[in-house]
């Protein structure tokens, strides 16, 4: 970390495209009494310090200095930090490790004022930007109350851009009734152009209970589902995330998600390998709504199981865990077990997941394999053993996984061994362990 050295500083502090000249600052009165009125500690906490000049940083704490003092070695530190260093019995300069020939500390008033000046300027600029953003949001909300057609679309686009660029704008939208206003644009006669922009805004806001109840009206849900099926990939992801926000609430009504059109749209989203963010969003929502039995039955009926099984080899770690979790939930129903058993490559694909990704993923995979092997032991256990299940189960038993998981592995291993003589089964374990 570069140290503050008066001989090398020359009265200028540079930071990115911002330079503060001490002489100019003094002329302009920046270093005057007005600066001192600010609470520097509060200002430092509120500002983003990504471009903080290195000379402002205390070498001990690596935090901005508020009361800089200089030692006889020329090195500058925050007063509290260097006094603490001395209190520990050190009589050296922490940076150079030189022994101090003078233990006095000198307030570095120049640097002190310059720090105040730099932070004051940044803080006032931030406050002005915040006020400008607030004014623009209010102006756009007023415009949206009056305009229709293309003008409404343009205003919504600009509002969405302001919200995504300036987090402070979200509170302004909320405080001025923006959520209710924007939600009112969703209905049976909403164009997809207006709907996609409105949803893109709503998904970035904090929705209270009443806002969620309002959005769960059948006409509004209908347009959201339509756009999930027919919109751009960005719109599809926003629709998926908005529905997820609605599900996460005490007033959620399950009939909102009991829709074949919704489930079909989500499955199309997770099948599109071009857009990993879409796959992740779709799987996250499917995992959540699978807690509803009616949804589980509907997913099985529209062929979700073979589609998800086919996806497994191409998914990344995060998505894999979600997909296997969904299959595990569906395997709790008899229809789900039958669909899993009849799905080509299901057993080999799931066996490969054991001891991969995470303990949770291994647990889901074991649960699925147990369900299908119990359903048809003669047929499924032999396929599983040939796919390397026996070796994987031995690894699980020998691992640090939880005892329940180990017990389930032992029981499944015993079930798999029933179709083999002891010698043959042992040879299968050795062979597949070598392959693995």
From TrEMBL:
It comes from the Eukaryota. This is Uncharacterized protein. It comes from Persea americana. The lineage of its organism: Eukaryota, Viridiplantae, Streptophyta, Embryophyta, Tracheophyta.
